[in-house]
Specification:
Blueprint lengths: L11 H8 L1 H24 L7 E2 L2 H14 L16 H14 L6 E3 L2 E3 L5
Parallel strand pairs: 1-2
Antiparallel strand pairs: 2-3
């Protein structure tokens, strides 16, 4: 039977983190490598200083939620978004808050997208 800790035990967090050290390290490395690919692949490998490579899964969902927020229902699936619309409703408040545009050129499948300002 696993050992149970009381809520006031100060070593509980340390013990739990020691048990989960490898999953935390691997997850952190995965996130860092993904960020490096998005933000540094264009400037370092393709020699385009202001190019960011947008992951299509979240990028397409964000652009589709921008279309949903602006009432362009016919163009939701235009950006390659092919999933259920639940994520769109989660992201729509952020796009309505003025976070839907970008002043930076973003690449999708090695094609530069125009910088938008919404």
């Amino acid at each position: 039977m696993p050992q149970r800790y009381k809520a006031s035990d100060p070593d509980r967090l340390v013990t739990l983190l020691k048990r989960r050290t490898w999953p935390i390290v691997i997850s952190s490395v995965y996130v860092v490598l993904g960020l490096l690919f998005c933000f540094r692949w264009g400037p370092v490998v393709q020699h385009l200083p202001s190019q960011w490579i947008r992951p299509l899964d979240l990028g397409a969902a964000y652009m589709a939620s921008t279309d949903l927020a602006h009432g362009h229902f016919g163009s939701i699936y235009h950006h390659g978004y092919l999933a259920y619309p639940g994520l769109l409703f989660v992201l729509t408040p952020f796009t309505r808050a003025g976070l839907g545009g970008s002043f930076i050129k973003i690449a999708t499948n090695h094609h530069l997208q125009p910088a938008t300002c919404s």
